[in-house]
Amino acid sequence: MKTSHSFPIGLSAYWQPPERYLIPNTKLKNWLLDTGSLTERLQSHCDHFHVQLLGQRHVPVSLEEMSQLNSLVPSKHVQDWQVREVVLWGNHQPWVFARSIIPQKMCDAEFAELGEQPLGKLIFNDPRFKRMPFQLTQLDEKNAVTAALNISCQQTIWARRSIFQFSGLPMSVAELFLPQSPAYEQCSDTSIT
């Protein structure tokens, strides 16, 4: 997979609480609202798993993303945050695009030298990380993420995000389930009616 746009890609969307959506399939709903490690779940569905790091560095975040983080730590300084974008691959297929906004203090300590390691491997093996409630969104088949990743998309696709708190610091993790993700298996229609 070659990207047609440079890092960062971004994930601009209208996020809402899960109860605002009619998720069309119980299996998809389970994937979207599962509070366990997405990395481990994806690994259990494939023989080959890897993380492709698209980029991680100081870049401006959207006003909407900053408002999500500002409710916990009011800092608008670019140098206080790093944006990390990755694609999680299963069986040589792109399954999930993930965008995380990580406090620089975490990058200097817990997440130093993270590289292509899964973020979830660290989060879910450390009980000090506490996940806040999910928000969900949908993107139609013509969206900026799949276009940037040069992935064919013929359906509505779903994303979730939540804040993880660690020692008073918030970290935002958003995960977009790409069209070939196992989250869509047995889904005849992935859009809202």
Tally the structural domains: 1
In the CATH hierarchy, the third-tier topology is known as Chorismate lyase
Helix content: 10-25%
Helix and strand content put the structural class at alpha+beta
Low-confidence segments, given as residue ranges, are: 189-193
**CATH superfamily (homologous) name:** Chorismate lyase-like
Average residue-wise pLDDT: 88
SSE ordering: HHEHEEHHEEHEE
**What is the CATH C level class, in words?**
Alpha Beta
Radius of gyration: 16 Å
The largest sheet is: 7 strands, antiparallel
Strand content: 25-35%
State the CATH architecture: 3-Layer(aba) Sandwich
Quote the distance from N terminus to C terminus. 32 Å
Report the principal-axis shape.
globular
- Number of helical elements: 6
Quantity of strands, as a count: 7
